[in-house]
Write a structure and sequence with these properties.
Muramoyl-pentapeptide Carboxypeptidase, domain 1; TIM Barrel; single chain; 9 strands; 8-stranded mixed barrel
Length: about 450
């Protein structure tokens, strides 16, 4: 939604790259991969096995660290010597990637390793903490003060360590190119905020010390969730099922998530293939759950027809809006989901109201509207026509303490604050929310 499509486009792109957990799928996806020096050491990728040494071994060890740390594997020493520890980590990676497990870095393992090291993803199996390593990137042991404009191996070391120290599903890895530009400076500032250091974007002694410590063990910088809102939720669709595996909703619930919104329909002709299973499985696991519809204004006056499709689809799953655990239905009102960022061509206040009125009459619940103030301002003339509806607002800025309210509205119910949250039980990033109220408030909204 919202940025559930526009900003969320980044999430979907990442989700499409996540592992499919099978040799055929992985090999097919990566068979055409080009050899790249993800860590910046060498693009030479000969077959490596126990006893191999040299720059290619250093590159392999560094890439193994980047590829397996998202699954909580402690980095191994990047010393250029392919010993038993490196062999063991290769085997662990091969299991993660659905490859044949022989501990040998051949063409298929190299191709998968390049992809996994450059794109964040998690294994089905999780690592266990082990002894922290001091040499994890292998570029240099020198730690000079670095700032924007610096170049060289020390910058490569910094970029690599930043990738290991930042939670990868929220912070896309930096290119390890040895050029300390604006992107590297911004990432240093984010790390400094996490580590409670002076956030000046300069890598001095204190930042080096923290960076070396965090990069060498199972410590991540994660973006702050909004303060003051203790109840967590998430939003799902088919994109949270990369390769088809189900969501483990019991694991999601055990992680502390209290509510979920599940995609039901889009426009006039799309029903999400996981609607029936996710809506009921999430509710059975104890979450408060709402189905949502993505409104498309690609033809005039279709709001009522879109509502009819949504009503039929969710009723078929058993949703009534009145059962214990049923949150009100949600109307996803935002920009077009074709990547253009345009307002819906035929989207109008009256057409949106047609959907809202028909769904409210069908379920006896006032729908929640998912939107943003900027959308209503830019596309619907800053209308106040939706002021009576509860709101789920999308805004991913970390500089705000609550999302801006549309004209006429006085409060919000849910705030979707990120499109790149990682939850136990889900094999792809998801959008995450907080609830504006108490547990008792959520229970009342969910008929509990």
């Amino acid at each position: 939604m919202g940025r559930r499509t526009l900003l969320r486009g980044l999430t979907l792109a990442v989700a499409a790259l996540l592992p499919l957990y099978g040799p055929t799928a992985v090999q097919a996806a990566e068979s055409a991969a080009t050899a790249v020096a993800v860590c910046g050491h060498t693009s030479a990728q000969p077959t490596l096995q126990r006893g191999s040494t040299g720059a290619s071994a250093v590159e392999a060890q560094c890439e193994l660290n980047l590829a397996t740390k998202p699954s909580r594997y402690t980095p191994i020493a990047t010393d250029g010597s392919f010993g038993p520890t490196t062999e063991s980590r290769v085997k662990e990676f091969q299991r993660c990637a659905g490859l044949g497990v022989d501990g040998v870095l051949g063409p298929q393992t190299w191709a998968a390793l390049n992809t996994w090291a450059a794109q964040p993803r998690a294994c089905a199996d999780q690592g266990v903490p082990s002894t922290a390593q001091t040499t994890v990137c292998g570029h240099t042991d020198a730690r000079p003060t670095l700032r924007r404009g610096a170049k060289g191996s020390e910058v490569k070391e910094t970029q690599c360590r930043l990738n290991l120290a930042m939670e990868p599903f929220h912070y896309p890895p930096l290119a390890i190119d040895g050029d300390f530009g604006g992107g590297t400076e911004a990432r240093v500032i984010e790390f400094q905020h996490c580590a409670n250091l002076s956030a000046d974007g300069v890598v001095g002694p204190n930042t080096w010390a923290k960076l070396a410590d965090w990069a060498g063990r199972n410590t991540y910088c994660t973006p702050p969730r909004p303060a003051g809102y203790p109840i967590d939720g998430l939003d799902t669709a088919k994109y949270q099922h990369p390769g088809g595996p189900p969501i483990d909703w019991k694991a999601v619930r055990a992680s502390g998530v209290e509510f979920a919104t599940v995609k039901a329909t889009r426009g006039l002709n799309v029903t999400d293939e996981y609607l029936a299973t996710d809506l009921e499985a999430a509710r059975a696991a104890g979450l408060a759950v709402a189905p949502y519809h993505f409104y498309t204004g690609t033809s005039p006056d279709t709001g009522a027809a879109q509502a009819d499709r949504f009503i039929a689809a969710v009723r078929a799953t058993g949703y009534t809006g009145r059962r214990a655990g049923d949150l009100p239905p949600i109307f996803d009102l935002e920009r077009m989901d074709d990547g253009s960022g345009r307002c819906p061509t035929y989207g109008t206040v009256d057409d949106a109201k047609a959907w809202l009125d028909r769904v409210e009459a069908a379920f006896g619940r006032t729908p929640i509207i998912y939107t943003q103030k900027s959308f209503l301002d830019d596309c619907l003339g800053s209308t106040t026509a939706f002021a009576r509806y509860p709101l789920q607002l999308a805004d991913y800025r970390q500089s705000i303490t609550q999302p801006p309210l549309p004209n006429g509205s006085t409060t919000w119910a849910m705030w979707q604050y990120t499109d790149a949250a990682l939850f136990p039980g889900i094999q792809a990033p998801a959008t995450a929310d907080v609830f504006n109220g108490t547990q008792a408030d959520l229970d009342r909204l969910a008929n509990r």
